[in-house]
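The methods section describes the discrete structure representation at length, but only in general terms. Each protein is reduced to its one-letter sequence and a matching series of backbone shape codes. I believe one specimen quoted in the main text would settle the matter. An entry of this sort, consisting of the sequence and the corresponding backbone structure tokens, reads as follows.
***
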Amino acid sequence: PGENETKVDLEELKTSVLYSGPVDPAEWVGLRKSYPLLVYLRNNLLMLAILAFEVTIYRHQEYYRCRNNLTAPVTKTIFHDITRAHLDDGVVNCVKYFINYFFYKFGLETCFLLSVNVIGQRMDFYAMIHAFWLIAVLYRRRRKAIAEIWPKYCCFLACIITFQYFLCIGIPPAPYYPWRSGNANFNSNIIKWLYFPDFIVRPNPVFLVYDFMLLLCASLQRQTFEDENKAAVRIMAGDNVEICMNLDAASFSQHNPVPDFIHCR
């Protein structure tokens, strides 16, 4: 567009992907010539090798259990003989327990930290939405109440990542977006804050990595909430029930099953 058709300065307009070089519409659908081809495919081949290695291990374990009439463990852990009863037996057993069940015990706190990381890394409109969701989840306070709203939170994360992915792709090469027209009161900073698709200030796709890590941990935490209702898992890993919600400080030590290592002498 000409200078009278948009409010973008000429110097800023020169940085647009439409005017900085030839535009290949095939790149919009993900087609681009790459040389050498092996360098381009090495990450995909590495992922396929890891998946094949994982399937081989699972098949070998299943075959070994069937041949020896063994049952599969209740929880997919590394140390099958370590339970909640071994947590306070020593440092070695404590480390083994947390290797098995760290996310079971501290997965919710990990999700909160990742949510704060997303807010701090983005600092835009979607960071504000993440902040509102974090406040809404923390307002529930009780773990049981948080577990009830958690599936909705996971659905929100999945939908917002999908929507932002399409924003990063944008539309096929065109003269300009509506918010770049002469009648629109948008500058580059507002477009960047709103995470709008644009040919000059393109959305940062790295933000989707932070959102994906949050979605991954939130999905694992949803599975953890479901495992907390299974008796077999509670026997192995212990429960996550708040024991001090209705207890005062004076009687707390009488109901706490964990040994007092500070005042034991």
